[in-house]
Structure prediction request, 47 residues.
Amino acid sequence: MRSSGVCSLCGKELAGFTCSLCGASVGISCYDPVNGVCIRCRRGRMP
Ligand SMILES: [Zn+2]
Ligand SMILES: [Zn+2]
Prediction:
């Protein structure tokens, strides 16, 4: 919670999206707008 606004996955970009599964704030490169989840959750959902 020390750096809100920064992507919680890579920490290198502004977090403009929130994962609908884990609630993580992530940037565009770590987010899948199609599924509405972060890339970490997406890997668990998709084959
Ligand atoms: Zn990121
Ligand atoms: Zn997630």
Summary: The mean pLDDT is 88. Residues 35 and 46 are 10 Å apart (CA to CA). Residues 19, 21-22, 24, 37-38, 40-41 surround zinc ion (ligand 2) (CB under 6 Å).
